[in-house]
Design brief:
- By secondary structure, this protein is mostly helical.
- It has five helices and no strands.
Length: about 180
């Protein structure tokens, strides 16, 4: 529907060019009303579509918490902080969406024609916080791999100790046999 309204606006803009003296002012009023309708519908659609994205983020964060926050390190502390900031951004966005939907329809439509889409800005903040969580998650993963490597190195050294002693003893036995 938005597509057809945009096409209608383009046709109207073209028609007004042929007689701007008589048609410009009435067309400006009609175009303004059409733009208000398009803005409100676009804002409504954006809020609905972003709800699925928010739900996916929350589910993903629950898995991240289970997988990455079980070890204590400075990296996990930073990941916890990033997750909290992301949850704050999500809650702020959801409160703005709720406020938008709680408004009277006429008031909401008029505001959508006059105000810039602030829901986009709040959702961009949610996306930025998600990027911070991803960076911290990568740091925790790298720290965990480093810890595992050092533990494996220690285990290897523990295993090698008796083997080196046995190797030395076998060399002595071999020297006595020669």
């Amino acid at each position: 529907m938005i597509k057809w309204i945009d096409i209608f606006k383009q046709v109207g803009d073209s028609a007004v060019q042929y007689d701007p003296v008589h048609a410009a002012l009435p067309w400006a009023g009609v175009r303004f009303l059409l733009q208000i309708a398009v803005n409100d519908t676009a804002k409504f659609n954006f809020a609905i579509e972003s709800a699925t994205s928010i739900a996916e983020k929350i589910c993903r964060y629950a898995i991240v918490e289970d997988l990455y926050l079980c070890h204590k390190s400075p990296a996990t502390d930073e990941l916890k902080r990033a997750l909290i900031q992301s949850y704050v951004a999500i809650m702020t966005y959801l409160s703005k969406v709720k406020f938008y939907f709680d408004q009277n329809t006429a008031k909401r439509i008029i505001k959508s024609g006059l105000l810039e889409a602030d829901l986009d800005n709040y959702f961009d903040f949610v996306e930025a916080e998600e990027a911070a969580v991803d960076r911290c998650k990568d740091l925790v993963s790298q720290q965990y791999q480093i810890d595992i490597q050092s533990k494996l190195t220690c285990l290897l050294n523990e295993i090698n100790g008796p083997l080196i002693r046995m190797d030395d003893a076998l060399k002595k036995v071999q020297d006595h046999l020669e």
